[in-house]
Specification:
With 230 residues, the chain is α/β, with parallel strands linked by helices. The chain is built from 9 helices and 10 strands. A 6-stranded mixed β-sheet has the order 6-7-8-3-9-10, sandwiched between helices. A 4-stranded antiparallel β-sheet has the order 2-1-4-5, with helices on one face. α7 links the parallel β7 and β8. The longest helix has 16 residues. It is globular. The two termini are 33 Å apart.
């Protein structure tokens, strides 16, 4: 289980996370939603160790990670797919995948799971990442996160700017990750239909704080209107 407790974080004098507490049970998909600028990406980057926190707790599998660097969190079993994908455009697909492999313990081979989930990547191993379409780059970014053999994956808006057919494929992959592979998934997502399709639980964020949580069938129209509508 991944759990944050009362996490506070600042950018200069700006109080960006205000006691944010979320839980992601093993083998589930939990979606974190909210309007732009409320702190969703900040929370994911804090969990991954890419941003320092002022106070609070970040626990994974019963281990306290606050204060650990990003590489330690990756070795603990947390994979991260950042907003904007951040693949290496000058490297080939295979080289991008091997960047993740270097961070894993044990075998240094690209896990077969990657190609089961994204068979298109096998045929593109020698193409440069920058030559792929946006949807293919997103698939590569998710695949790269999976090469470390994670127990939990953080996904920051994986459907942003992606063509509908790839969005559907990514949704199917996310469901397979937690239903078949028993990974924990924490998803930041703006598209409500996609969130309803893939997630089992939700947290809603306002101004750096969690303001509502529950199972997806408890995400009512009133909550959507109050916290998500623009």
């Amino acid at each position: 289980m991944l759990e944050t407790r009362s996490v506070h974080q600042y950018y200069g004098s700006s109080h960006t996370l205000r006691g944010a507490s979320v839980t992601v049970p093993e083998g589930t998909c939990t979606v974190l939603m909210g309007r732009n600028g409320v702190g969703k990406t900040t929370l994911l980057r804090a969990i991954m160790g890419l941003l320092p926190i002022e106070s609070g707790s970040i626990q994974f599998g019963g281990r306290e990670l606050a204060g650990a660097d990003a590489s330690e969190r990756a070795r603990a079993g947390i994979g991260f797919v950042p907003q904007g994908r951040e693949i290496f455009g000058q490297l080939t697909v295979e080289e991008n995948l091997r960047v993740g492999v270097f961070a894993r313990t044990g075998s240094k081979e690209i896990p077969e799971l990657v190609f089961r989930l994204f068979p298109v990547l096998r045929a593109m191993l020698h193409r440069r990442g920058g030559d792929l379409s946006g949807g293919q780059q997103q698939q590569l970014a998710i695949a790269r996160a999976l090469t470390i053999g994670p127990k939990c994956v953080l996904l920051d808006e994986p459907t942003e700017g992606i063509q509908p057919n790839i969005v559907h494929e990514i949704g199917t992959v996310i469901r397979r990750l937690y239903e078949e592979e028993k990974l924990s998934v924490l998803l930041v997502e703006q598209k409500l239909p996609f969130a309803r399709r893939v997630a089992e639980r939700f947290f809603l964020m306002e101004r750096g704080s969690i303001v509502a949580a529950g199972t997806m069938d408890e995400l009512t129209d009133d909550l959507v209107q109050k916290h998500l509508a623009v």
